[in-house]
Structures are given as C-alpha cells and as structure tokens.
Amino acid sequence: MRKCVPSFVLCAILAFSATSMAFANGEKDVAESSATSELKISVFQGGFGREYWDLMAERFQEQTGIQTTVEASPNIAEMIRTDILSGNAPDFVFLQANEAVTKTLMADRQLVDLTDTIAPIKDKFVDGTFSMKSIAPYGDGRVYLTPFVSSTMGLWYNKTHFEENGIATPATWDEFFALDGASAERALFTYQGIYPGYLQCFLYSVFAASSENGKGMLDRLTSYDPTTLDDPGFRNALALLEKMNSEDLLLKGTVGMDHTMSQSEFLKGSALFIPCGSWIVNEMADAPKEDGFAYGMLPAPSLKPGMDRYISTKFEEMYIPSTAKNIENAKKFLLFLYEEENLIEQAKLTQGLPPMKNAVELIEPYVDPGVTASLRILEEDGVMPLGATFTPVNGMATNPEDYFWEQMGAIITGVKSPQKVVDELRPVFEEAQSLLAE
Amino acid sequence: MTSLKPKLGTRQLFIVFGLGIPLVVYCLFVVGPTLSIFLESLFRWNGLSPNKKFVGLKNYTDLFGNPMFLSAISHTVFLLLVSTAVTMGIAIFFAVTLVQSRLPERGIFRVMFFFPNVLSVVVIGIIFRYVYAPNTGILNSALEAFGIEGPIWLGDARTVLWAISGAMVWQAMGYYMLIYMAGLDDIPPSLYEAADLDGASKFRQFIHITIPMLWDIIRVTLVFYIISSLNLSFTFVRIMTDAGPNKASEVLLTFMYDQAFENGNFGYAMAAAFVIFVLSFGLALLSDKLTERKDF
What we know:
Chain A is of the alpha/beta class.
C-alpha cells in the first residue's frame, strides 16, 4: 500500500500530462492545418439578434468553402477578452467601438488596418464615413473599423401631437424654451436619467451648434483639450443645460429613471422631447404609446437662426483583431457582408444598414416609418452629419468619457454649477491629454 | 531521511494524504489567485495587451488618493452597517414573534418571509427599481395617497443608499429569520417558564434568555451577512442605479469592476480587489471579535 499510493499518483499525473499533451498537440495540428479554411466570428447579440449572422455564416461557407462558426452572446465582450488572453482571438468581431474591449484594443493598436480592404467599395458609402473617429481612430486616415449599422441621434417628439396642436418644431434654443407650457401636463424634456451617457444623443450636436466654430471646438473637446473648457461655445452649451434645471423644464423624476422608464414616459406623452437614437423605434416597439403617436426627430436647436444644425450619427462597428489567425478570411467575410443581396437580408433581419448611399431606399420596405424619418433627416437643408466620439484613453483611474457625461448630468439635474463642472473636468482632461501624448 | 522512514505508518500517510489534498486545493483556488491578484496589482496593464509595466505600489497610492475610491468605501460601509443592523433586527424580531406567539398561520408567514430569498437578486433589483419609480412607483403612489410628495429615491444622493438598503433587507430578512427560528426552537421552554414564575417581563426574557441562547448563531450569521452583502451590493447597485446619481451609490465592487472591464485599467482594479479582500477579511474578524461571548 505504501509503495502503491505514490506510484498510483505518479502514474495518474503522468497519464494526465500525456493525455493533455496529446490533446494539445491534436488541437494545434487541426488549427495549423486549417488555418486558411476556417473563420470564427464573435458577434454581440443585442437588438439585432443572431439570425442574420447565422445566415451570413451559412452563405459565406457555401460560397467560399471556408468553415465559418458564429459565437454570439449579449456578453460577447467578456468572451472576446478571455479568447484573446488565451491566444484564441476571434477572426472577426462585431462589437461597438465604445465597448471597453474595443476601446482597449483601439488604444493598444491591436486592430488590423482595413484601409486597403475597404478601398474598392469606399464610394458606396456616404461621404465622410471613413474619416469618422470610430472608424479611423488615429486621425491618420487609416481605417481600422467598419460600420455595420448607422443610427442617427437627435431629439424625438410626437409628430401627431405637434401637428394636431399646431406646434412648430423649434430651430433655435429660444424657440425650444418657448415651448415650455405649450402643452398642458407635458414637461418640456426628459432623458434617460441614471444613464447620463444618453445625453450624447443630442449634446454632441449642441456643442457643434453652440458657436460659429462649434464643430472645431467639438473635435478639441473629444480629444480632451483642456482649453475647450473655456471656449465660449462650450460655456454656451453648459448654460443651456443649466437653464433646463433652473427653469424646471425637466420631467419630474427624470433623474431617477432608467432608459426604459423615461422612454415610456415620453411615449405616453409626459414630455415633449427626449434625446435618443433611431434604435428607440425597435427598442420600444411593444411599449404603450399615447393615441396616434408617430415618431418625429429633430436636430438639436442652434443658437441663432440660419446656423448649421447637426445630427450625430452612430455606428455599430466591426473589426479584425490583429492576433486573429485567419485575417484574410475575415477580410473576405467583411466585403461579403457589404454585397447588395446581403445588405437586403440585413435590412430585413436587423432593420438596420450601414451608411451606404442607397441605404434609405433599401431599408424603407422593412422598417417603421420612424426609422426612415430619422435617416432622412440628413437630407434636410442646413442639417449636417456629425460623427463625434471621445478618443479612447487607457490607464486612467477616472474614465474620462464616462466622467464627462456624468458631469453633464450633474448640471442638468442641478447638482453642480457649470463652473464647478469645468473646474472638476480640467484635471481629468489634462491627465487624459498627457496620456494620449504618451 | 532513513530515520524518518519507519515512523511513516499507514495512519500518518493517511493524515498527510487527507490534509494534503485539501491543502493543495486551498492553495490552488484561494491562496494562488489571491497572490496572483496581488502580483497583478503591481503592474499597469489594460487587461488585453501583451505589455505590462511594473509600477510597484503606485496603484495602491493612487487608489487611496482617489476620492471616488474613498467614497466607494464609505458607501459600502454604510450599506453594510445599515442593512446588517436592520436585517438582523427585523429577522430576530419576526423569528421571536412567530415562535413565541405560536400563531396557527406560522407556516404561511415563514414561507412568505422566505419567498424573496428564492428570487434572483437581479429580479429583486428590477422589482425595487419599479417600487421606487418616481412617478409610477408603488412607494411614491402610496405616499401620495397620504398627501406626501415622495422623493426621487434612486435619483437623489441623499436617499439612494437608504433605498438600496431597503432592497437588501427585503431580500435577506427571511433567510436569517428562518435560521433564528431554528435556533429558538432549541431553547428549552423550561427557561421561559421559570422566568415567567419569577415575574420576568417578555422584554427581559428576550434580553436575558433569547439573545444569550441565540448568541452563537447571531455571531455566525453576522459574518455570513457581512460577506454576502458585500457581494450583493454589487448586483443591487448595478441593476438599480448603475452607481448613480453621480457616483452617489458607487460601492467597492462596482468601482473595481468598472476599472477592470469598462476602463481598461486592470492593474488598478486588482489593487482595489486586494484592498476589498483585506477589508472584508478585516470586517469579518472585527465582527467576530466584537461579538465574542460575554457574561449576560
């Protein structure tokens, strides 16, 4: 017995090691031999579901013979993180640019340069698409992410209510504030209170339209240039937020509501305006609405009549990690997704399309008129597209982007004055800028 | 070496074997990860990059210089103190009431009070988000019926932690009540009969018989509750407020999670994790020390 136990344990360890090595070698062999005929795609399974991705994988496999597997999950970000750390990075990823994993990969330059891949089809996209920060993050014109779906963000209102009551949509902030009390029992404004990040749905446009050089100021702001905090245009925008609180224009209780609650209140007619993206139409499809409700979207008002107004556009992005094993297959798959017959399938199954020049025509038969209206808004005179996003920064104790939106929430809810917010933002901007300079 | 050989009999080998396996498992799954967390906390790393930069204890000095971390500590301690005191107080009160009153509906009450414990914490968080909803929530609607305008429970820095404590108490109360009821069943009725004969009031019986007899159970449940509510606070905060408004409900675990998975600041988050480990260990030891049995 005395001799038997250690021998048994030793044998077991040896057997286990040998088996593990055999399995490991087996896996390695398979991976090596099939490096050119496999594709693993990892996709975020949110509002767009996974049906579209399964269909594309099946079609791509039929067409090319490349074994394509789909990993889809609402928690895909964490799965991708684990996959990358274990040396098994996905070949192709669909995950927003503002997700932490994507931001980390961007900040760490771990994405494949797609500039040459996308070059042959670049003209099919709306002008300016590939110069947006979420697509070309380093400001050198090189493309590292491509758009899956384009959404517009602005101020939503109930079109029927405005038309029936003869209320004109506001073009300037004076007209906007004059609407307070225009409808009995409706507050002027609500937003997704506990998630102040939603304020970007209209605040980027507010910053851009708050001075003659608002767009230039916005570029400096999103690169954490501390001098922006003293820019008169930026201060104008903060004063507008302060006014929302000081004149009691917010729907009561907004600050404690999540996105579902505030959006439901808006749909039931408790507030005239809410900032959100075109996804609200699908997100709230089953929510109760006041009689005759019809979605209408506005760009944020401007300071003076005749000034340009802006609509923020937001993409859901796709990219290829630089540690992927099958980069060429992933590039082929990316181009495959942008083929017209596949775009039609995308419109049918996801009710969304990338910012292609013919996107509105392609998508119109398959979506709620509210979505089409939110896309057509860019065809209006004096309305300019805006692709703003904060530059990702790694290594800060305070997430500067989240902190910025929390401070905007603090002004609109009256917790802090604009000056206090500026004073508190300044050291955060300075640290972010110095880290970006590194 | 040869002199030791004769001493290693089957019994000793069994002891070594029996203790060795748990020790190896403990080292692998507790000591190892804890050490690895500490080692990771000495680096600046974004959690994905192959490059890590050794920064020594800088993550710790940054951490204690960060007002958000310090306020996360104070929020966590607030939740632990308030929810522990209220949960334990109510659980003992209901347990004693149900056991001593000998109500025929005792079984029904027991099930009713235990019911929240069967629900997922996420579900309870969502339920309470609607309970506290500013305009449509049941709480403010009830207050309105009495002519009181309720606060914005989850949107006001002054009320948000109290509101989260409420959900934590509701979730845990029934579980601890059941444990105390089981403990109360073991107290010999003769003690109460003797006290009755001596003319002791129900309150004196509670203080001088019930509490001392339950004391060992109370000590254990206190440690359980402190550890579990540290974890529960993460889920409740995540679901109910997302640490808002303006980080007024940020707790240690949400701070750590956000740093690691939202802010790409893994080394820093590991420093926070190590501090949380030390803190929870310290709190458990402290509660054990403070509740050491004394003469009643």
